[in-house]
Amino acid sequence: MTSSENPLAGLGRNAGAAVLVLSSLAGGDKHGYALVKDVEGFSGVHLPPGTLYQVLARLVSRGLIVALEADSRRRPYRLTAQGATVLADYITAQQRILKTGQARLKRSWTLA
Prior knowledge:
With 112 residues, this protein is mainly alpha-helical. It contains four helices and two strands; from the N terminus they run αααββα. The chain has helices at 15-25, 32-43, 49-61, 81-108, and strands spanning 65-67, 77-79.
């Protein structure tokens, strides 16, 4: 998969954080603190503020999410149609990898 086929490729080491943010926003609009709590809840991963806001800025610049009008001091974010497509494609690719790994482990290893 080339970088033009994978909009997450340009995120480098933050690609995993981008997937977590996109997954969280797939459940509805959220501001920064709500994103951090939601991601921790479903993944056990804590996103530090610097990482979170760097990822949000990159996702906005790629058109995968949009920043909504601020509500008081909080700015919510929303997943775009393009972002949903990128997330769905990423999940499909990861499922292929998981199935391959599981099949190979099953053939080659006896695991409890």
